[in-house]
TrEMBL record:
It comes from Halobacillus salinarum. Residues 19-478 form the Aldehyde dehydrogenase domain. The keyword Oxidoreductase applies. This is NAD-dependent succinate-semialdehyde dehydrogenase. The keyword Oxidoreductase applies. Gene3D superfamilies: Aldehyde Dehydrogenase, Chain A, domain 1 (3.40.605.10), Aldehyde Dehydrogenase, Chain A, domain 2 (3.40.309.10). The lineage of its organism: Bacteria, Bacillati, Bacillota, Bacilli, Bacillales.
Length: 484
């Protein structure tokens, strides 16, 4: 356990008040140690309704502020996150398990969205269009969509909130978030930063409830105009169906199944570095992490040899220890899936070069899995067709660019893809041929506040981040003005 005020007891943040002291609580457990990190109230439908009412009332005033005024609040919130970086990173590691160095990086990444959208809100431009005649003027203006509900995941407990909250607030919307039960404490700390920044009551709200209580209440509400979700494709499809009744504006950032291609003219060091960066961040529990690797035969032995050395060097352990690279998986269910994928691959002919099994630590029953390198991977293996969400790299040998691209695109998902080549013409063609929303060429870490993040096909709808990321929080209004 970290600092001396543990376990934490944090509350829901509804209409500017910390609420839920009278409710039943649930435990938040450190996946690395099974220790209690804190408790949170189990909110109810009533709490969600109170948050909607507060956000609706606040919207009437917040939307009237100028972009400059809203930016000033966001700048203050950014400053609070930066000032509290160490404290928030510590809680994040305790409830999520990721190494402290990654948790610190995530707090900075989370803060970067707030800073970026504080500025971007000032660039929400309309248009004036020449009309057909002297008697009409045509204006196009952008206005906030209204009250936004957000459902966020446990793998990035801070950044997936701010990537939605910052553009929503900058656009003039008000915001209600339901974080996951695994990582609500980081979310509550982010709400504290919003409160400390003086953001008016009701503009930002957080309600911890069971998933159904939140989504059903929000879906029925005519006041909530937008739903934004990061999570599984399965849940995304359900939310999309439910949204039809009130015709909500919906953004979905869903599962991935990222291919990573290494062509025979790649710089091997860059390709290995990119593979490690992409695959092992958060123990492989990111939607954009490389899931399956295709390596051209001419570079295969050299690439696999160097990758093996690097994978074997990765240190597994409790993320609070400074030199740890790989923390635990989030829970037993996640661990079991990784075991299933490795066993299936081995049964179908894959060879384990590094790892391949659970990692023993002094902590009992914690879901640590060894960083694992598999070769002789094939299309029929689970690890080549489903998102593994764990520290496993399966490598398949390919012969041509065409074969690599065909295999890479042969999936219902389209979030992120990576490839490594030093050849400009080859690289340009492959970048254009990959059917993905995010493509890294000689680069394994594409995420950035200023760039659009999101997928094609069953990986979702819409983009977060960049200039594109504020659009889903805006309505376009056409004003037709008759003049004399
Ligand atoms: C995700 O896993 O969905 C988020 C990863 C990122 O923002 O880099």
């Amino acid at each position: 356990m970290g600092a001396n005020e543990r376990p934490l007891h944090l509350l829901n943040y509804i209409n500017g008040e910390w609420q839920g002291d009278n409710l039943e609580t649930f435990d938040v457990i450190n996946p690395a140690t099974n220790e209690l990190v804190g408790t949170m109230p189990n909110g109810t439908e009533k709490d969600v309704l109170a948050a909607i009412e507060g956000a609706d009332a606040a919207f009437k005033e917040w939307k009237k502020l100028s972009a400059e005024e809203r930016a000033a609040y966001l700048e203050k919130m950014y400053a609070r996150l930066i000032e509290r970086k160490e404290e928030i990173a510590q809680v994040l590691t305790e409830e999520n398990g990721k190494p402290l160095k990654e948790a610190r990086g995530e707090v900075l990444y989370a803060a970067s969205f707030i800073k970026w959208y504080a500025e971007e809100g000032k660039r929400v431009y309309g248009r004036t269009i020449p009309s057909k005649g002297e008697g009409q003027r045509i204006q196009v203006i952008k206005q906030p969509v209204g009250v936004v509900a957000a459902i966020t995941p446990w793998n990035f407990p801070a950044a997936m909130i701010t990537r939605k909250l910052a553009p929503a607030l900058a656009a003039g919307c008000t915001f209600i978030v339901k974080p996951p039960k695994e990582t609500p404490l980081t979310a509550a700390k982010i709400m504290e930063c919003a409160e400390e920044a003086g953001i008016p009551r009701g503009v930002v709200n957080m309600v911890l409830t069971p998933n159904e209580a939140f989504s059903e209440t929000v879906q029925k509400s005519k006041v909530v105009r937008k739903l934004t979700f990061t999570g599984s494709t399965e849940v995304g499809k359900l939310l999309m169906k439910q949204s039809a009744d009130t015709m909500k504006n919906i953004s979905l950032e869903l599962g991935g199944q990222a291919p990573l291609i290494v062509l025979d003219d790649a710089d091997v060091e860059t390709a290995v570095e990119g593979t490690i960066a992409s695959k092992f961040r958060n123990a492989g529990q990111t939607c954009i992490c490389a899931n399956r690797i295709y390596v051209q035969s001419g570079i295969y032995d050299e690439f696999v040899g160097k990758l093996k050395e690097k994978v074997a060097e990765l240190k597994v352990g409790n993320g609070l220890e400074e030199d740890v690279d790989i923390g635990p998986l989030i829970n037993q269910k996640g661990y079991d899936k990784v075991v299933r994928h490795v066993e299936d691959a081995v049964a179908k002919g894959a060879e384990v070069l590094v790892g391949g099994k659970g990692h023993q630590t002094s902590e009992q029953d914690a879901p640590f899995f060894e960083p694992t390198l598999l070769i002789n991977a094939k299309e029929n293996m689970l690890c080549m067709t489903e998102e593994t969400f764990g520290p496993v790299v399966p490598v398949q040998k390919v012969e041509s660019d065409e074969e690599a691209v065909r295999l890479a695109n042969d999936t219902p998902f389209g979030l992120a893809a990576y490839y490594f080549t030093e050849n400009m013409s080859r690289g340009t063609k492959i970048g254009e041929a990959l059917d993905y929303g995010i493509v890294g060429w000689n680069h394994g870490a594409p995420s950035a506040a200023q760039a659009p993040f999101g997928g094609t096909k069953q990986s979702g709808l819409g983009r977060e981040g960049g200039a594109e990321g504020i659009e889903p929080f805006l309505e376009t209004k056409y004003l037709s003005i008759g003049i004399k």
